Amino acid sequence: MKVADVRHILDTMGNMFPEAHCELNHSNAFELTIAVLLSAQCTDATVNKVTVDLFQKYKAPLDYISVPLEELEQDIRRIGLYRNKAKHIQSLCSILIEQYGGEVPQAHDQLVTLPGVGRKTANVVVSNAFGVPAIAVDTHVERVSKRLALAGWKDSVLEVEKKLMKAVPREEWTLTHHRLIFFGRYHCKAQNPQCQVCPLLDVCREGKKRMKMSLIRKDKDSATKTKLKN
């Protein structure tokens, strides 16, 4: 994709969502790590409902390992895959205490070794908690990037991340991550994207395809109505 097209995409999203930000409620790096871990295959809204009470009860890693696993499971049972996530949280907290003095490590390569923390989670933590530029690729970022041809249809999540890092100026990585999420979450949705009013339709291969199919359907419906009248 041409540099000018990438700039057009970034500036348009910036105008649409100038206040884009991490929507997971947290007050420090540890809470953010727990929140992102919980958000896997779960909406941020649901996670925020759970962490309101969770972060009041559990303030530090030691708090999470001081209760039976079953109790923690009950505290997060509204979250999808809550049993596995509870195990990951307790294991993660034990490692933080044993190896990092109870603090979340700032290095990306250390974060990804923690239970339940993959590349996406690590990217979110380093960028939002420690100010290190990063692009975390979730379902929204992946979908939007492929529709706008910032990545290939068959690209893996890692390939999407690498292509975005190459196309987007480094100082804009974190902000672009948030804006891609907002664009995908509130505008370019998986099932019902707002193609008909999208300011990026000119560079969106998915949108052009959908609009073309829509015109074909309208023409067919019009032809059918005309035949019925005759």
UniProtKB/TrEMBL annotation:
Gene3D superfamilies assigned: Helix-hairpin-Helix base-excision DNA repair enzymes (C-terminal) (1.10.1670.10), Hypothetical protein, domain 2 (1.10.340.30)
A Pfam family that the UniProt record links to this protein: HhH-GPD
UniProt keyword list: 4Fe-4S, DNA damage, DNA repair, DNA-binding, Endonuclease, Glycosidase, Hydrolase, Iron, Iron-sulfur, Lyase, Metal-binding, Nuclease
A GO MF label: DNA N-glycosylase activity
Entry EC no(s): 4.2.99.18
Catalytic activity: 2'-deoxyribonucleotide-(2'-deoxyribose 5'-phosphate)-2'-deoxyribonucleotide-DNA = a 3'-end 2'-deoxyribonucleotide-(2,3-dehydro-2,3-deoxyribose 5'-phosphate)-DNA + a 5'-end 5'-phospho-2'-deoxyribonucleoside-DNA + H(+)
Keyword flag 4Fe-4S: yes
Keyword set includes Protease: no
Domain HhH-GPD: 38-186
CDD domains: ENDO3c
Gene Ontology terms describing biological process: base-excision repair, AP site formation
Superkingdom to which the source organism belongs: Bacteria
Record SMART domains: ENDO3c, FES
Needed cofactors: [4Fe-4S] cluster
Cofactor note: Binds 1 [4Fe-4S] cluster.
InterPro entries xref list: DNA_glycosylase (IPR011257), Endonuclease-III-like_CS2 (IPR004036), Endonuclease3_FeS-loop_motif (IPR003651), HhH-GPD_domain (IPR003265), HhH_base_excis_C (IPR023170), HhH_motif (IPR000445), Nth (IPR005759)
Coiled coil, from the record: none
Binding site for [4Fe-4S] cluster: C188, C195, C198, C204
Family: Belongs to the Nth/MutY family.
Function: DNA repair enzyme that has both DNA N-glycosylase activity and AP-lyase activity. The DNA N-glycosylase activity releases various damaged pyrimidines from DNA by cleaving the N-glycosidic bond, leaving an AP (apurinic/apyrimidinic) site. The AP-lyase activity cleaves the phosphodiester bond 3' to the AP site by a beta-elimination, leaving a 3'-terminal unsaturated sugar and a product with a terminal 5'-phosphate.
This protein's name: Endonuclease III
Lineage of the species this protein comes from: Bacteria, Bacillati, Bacillota, Bacilli, Bacillales
Name of the gene encoding the protein in the UniProt record: nth
